[in-house]
Amino acid sequence: MDPEVDVEQIAETAAPAPRMTRQQILTIISMASVNFSSMICYSILGPFFPNEALKKGASQTIVGLIFGCYAVSNLIGSLVMGKYIVQIGAKFMLVMGLFVSSACTIMFGLLDRVPSGATFISMCFIVRSIDALGFAAAMTSTFAMTAKIFPNNVATILGCMEAFTGLGLILGPPLGGWFYQSFGYEVPFMILGCFLLIMVPFNMYILPSVEADPSKDSFFGLLGKGKIILICYAVFTLSGGLGFLDATLSLFAMEKFKLSAGYVGLILLGLSLPYCLVSPLIGYITDKYPSTRSWFIVTGGAATAFGFFMLGPAPFFHISSQLWLLVLMLSVVGLSIGMTAIPMFPEIISYAYEQGYEEGLGTLGMVSGLFGAFWSFGMFCGPTVGGVITQHLSFEWAAAVQGGMALLGAFLLAVYYVCHPQQQQQQQQQQQSVRKDSRAADERTPLLAE
């Protein structure tokens, strides 16, 4: 098997084949392994690291900043990697991103040996920031390659990939909490870091190379469009909410309900399991019926807001906190984020093509970088601002603020879609026409040649 496949030429006439070739299946496995291994390493911190950092002299605000610095580096990395993905090479970017992330995960497990106070805090910032650059490289190339190799099924394939992202989020917290309780601080990072390292040669072997010409378009031209601004704000609110939960939920659950780190990891299943299950279904529906993307985004945003309002619950509801209510609202948030996030990426791609952007890896990398940048910006603001609000007010008020931001994003997008119905119809007709042309041109040609 030769992984050096000319994907550029084949993807131009790509369309759903009756059955996937071996190379297609291996490509999906490769990308799924990246999503799964990266997210399981990212999510193990939630159940125990905030409490461990407090023992090392960090405040709640500093813990939020440690989580937030990951997002800042991810933001910068996403923009740079997205801009230069063609020059660097999508496959090389992905593999090196995995290698850097695995090394940093192992190094993070050694930080308990660092002296408490400023030294520990500084090392946390440094290692997390470098780790984020590796993660940005891997995720940017994964998103771009998904859209390039499967141009007519972006949401479907992305939904399947996000199922593995959700699986990583599902297994990360309980495994991290259990390993921490059983073996101490270092073992979770060592085991999962080595697991991520194994993914490097695996992906080097099976992942196809993607060749393309650099795009002449810019981030700022795309970001100047009203629809893109609103979608990016919605991306920001979703990731902000998740980042807020990463930094604050474990401490809230431990203090409010007297739970151990292991049980906190199980509670987080309420967030990640619905997301894992719903993502492939949402991807399939929005690929088959592109006109539903807008209302999935709006409805999901409103449901996300409701989930955060009731998570505490918000003090103005005058409802006491209950463990069952917390788990239920985490499930609502996980379900609604799947409804909202999956259609966003293909929605941005479709709009970019409508505005005359070149259909190639350069544009896909730019869109992937833009999406990743705003996701990372939210992942910075969520734990940072949420940590400050939690420290000075309460978790309940901080969750209510996250809900208000999500509700604003859903409302603004709903107004936009109502005011531009003709644009939505034209987009749907154009996508259907492209699908018909692709099927006619590629009726007997597989998406990826053996």
UniProtKB/TrEMBL annotation:
The keyword Transmembrane applies. It is found in: Membrane. It is a multi-pass membrane protein. GO terms for molecular function: transmembrane transporter activity. The keyword Membrane applies. Residues 434-450 have a biased composition (Basic and acidic residues). Its main location: membrane. This is Solute carrier family 18 member B1. It comes from Cyclopterus lumpus (Lumpsucker). The gene is slc18b1.
